[in-house]
Amino acid sequence: MHSLKALTLLGTLCFSVLANAHNTPFKIEEASIRDIQAAFDKKTLTSRQLVEWYVNRIHEHDHHYNSVSEINPDIFKLASKADAERKAGKKRGPLHGIPILLKDNIATGDKMHNTAGSLALYSDACKPTRDSTIASKLRKAGALILGKACMSEWANFRTSDGSGAEYKDADGWSGRCGQTRNAYNITRSPSGSSGGPAVAVALNFVTASIGTDTDCSITAPAAIHGLVGIRPTVGLISRDMVIPIAHSQDTPGPMAKSVTDAAIMMEVLAGQDSRDPLTNMPPVPKKPVKYTNYLKKNGLRGARIGIPRHVFWEKWNRPEEKAVAEQAIQKLKELGATIVDPADILTIDRISDMSYGLGGLEYTLLYYEFKQDIQAYLAKLKKQCPMKSLSDLIQYNKDHADVEMPLFKQEVFEISQNTTNLNDPFYQKTLRLVRKLSGSQGIDAAFRKYKLDAMFVPVDWAFFPPQPLAMAGYPQINVPIGTDDEGVPFAVSFYAPAYSEHKLIQYAYALEQATKARRPPTLL
Ligand SMILES: *[C@@H]1O[C@H](CO)[C@@H](O)[C@H](O)[C@H]1NC(C)=O
Ligand SMILES: *[C@@H]1O[C@H](CO)[C@@H](O)[C@H](O)[C@H]1NC(C)=O
């Protein structure tokens, strides 16, 4: 957190409401991207003021939460430049002058680090030399990259035994940041691995953020922070210069306070990129999709929504929260949807068989891919970066066990290190099996059988069902629906086969507008 502390506070700028010449206040807290753009246009707010407000709020309050790993040292300059451009009539795009925070595994070619939470990459030598495609698309759309957000170290892919850590799976802990805390209740987990990006948006430390998801890493932290999180189809948004877990499942996506903000960000982020071949693979949409065209209040009318009771609802063991989510199903009906209940995924029990391979189907695949994918990422860093391979990272942790392994070890790294390569017939067989059980015989089969447009499931910190969705590389969006008795939100979520984001946005928007369940946390 050194660079954060090093940034000087700019006098007394802790106003929460900015007044214009006519004393019409503009409230930054909970403001949407469109609210902020309107305020820029009416000249009741500048990007510089907005950035100062966020940075001061982070300085004053983030020590309770530990959500921001570093603030862009150039952020004030960038904000002033955005203001000057707007004054000169130049608006780069829909995010012109809007501050965005990136999870600390998405590279920027500026003064900031990219570490996946690990001290092994926290050095000048291992700083990226160029923007990730995500960062460059954000800049082209006018966004200001405010900083980087803390994450569960290596996106929760270092330990299988986080029992020494404060939270299950070592959620929210990293050597780089220490423990990140839930924005709604600091005794509770921030969830992971995109915990920091969720906490920061929930607390209005920034307008929106970008997380990454391999299995629940966007949707779980978004759910427990009252946010809309989109896990896009794998291949819709480029993973260029994003520190990976596994190319079969990794997918970056927006975390925002509303479906509208998330849809605006999707339009900026989606699209083909020669640096990530999967973005060019059919059936990727040839033309960019205008996601904001799908923000329709009556968007659920006529939709067929399936309820996969088996596992996803039946095993969720929190009656009060469940009652709220059941009411949401009723709400879908009132909004004109046809509910197909139950609509089960028949392969779900086979998918979750943990006796397969190196510890279940999904993990077997991830173990093989991580070893190769992390090496490919490290090869893109400067020659001076001493980390070249997974074995270097393992050695680093051993050599720095006092700061990297005080709470948990690196069993996942060690199993991954033990794998061969992606030509191994066992890996190939596992990949085919995962695709079949999650996709063609799993989700696709259920969608065909019940003629569904989407499935509808709860997302809650206390409940981690197997995720055929993540294994198939399919998209998901969640909508806040309620708050538990410890003050922590939970969500409901729509999902569907590849490249259905436009439909999911449409359904989520209709439900969001009918429920408006997001409540901002009380700032400590
Ligand atoms: C790695 O493989 C060797 C040989 O098969 C085995 O003895 C060892 O337990 C494995 N280590 C891990 C961490 O899986
Ligand atoms: C926060 O969570 C703890 C349990 O971890 C609980 O005892 C406490 O009441 C919660 N606080 C609030 C304000 O709900």
Automatic annotation (TrEMBL):
This is Amidase domain-containing protein. It holds the Pfam family Amidase. The keyword Signal applies. InterPro entries: Amidase_dom, AS_sf. Residues 1-21 form the signal peptide. Residues 50-504 form the Amidase domain. It comes from the Eukaryota. Keywords: Signal. It comes from Basidiobolus ranarum.
